[in-house]
Sequence to fold (141 residues):
Amino acid sequence: MGLIEEVASYLDGDGRKESRILGREASFLYATESMRLTTRLMQLASWLLLQRAVNEGEISKENARSEKEKVKFSATPSERGGPGYDQLPETLRLYIDKGDRLFDRVMQFDTLERGKMPELDPGTANGIADQLARLKAAFGR
Fold:
């Protein structure tokens, strides 16, 4: 919730000032990215509030799952960049990165909560297997 407040304060204050000095292409991208960011953060807040309600015993897990199905993450992170992205204010880009990281963490929790194992990157999975093999060899188990 703190991130939402920070972003709202930025967009209503310094962000508004910074957006006024952007070129046409960057200004359009600023409007698009700021809308995506606020939408994504509100969707994440909805998900997190439902999870908190479950944790506090206010609703059942089944009821929360049903409600979470209604929360559609329409503004999901995608490849960043493209024309004008590097012209966006650094503060906005930092908030976008924070929002993307929060989205990734919530999606991991959502996957685990649904009883599924997150898919590992083959490179990462091999690295983990290699480390486990080394530990087994070192401790003889």
Observations:
- The CA atoms of residues 51 and 57 lie 10 Å apart.
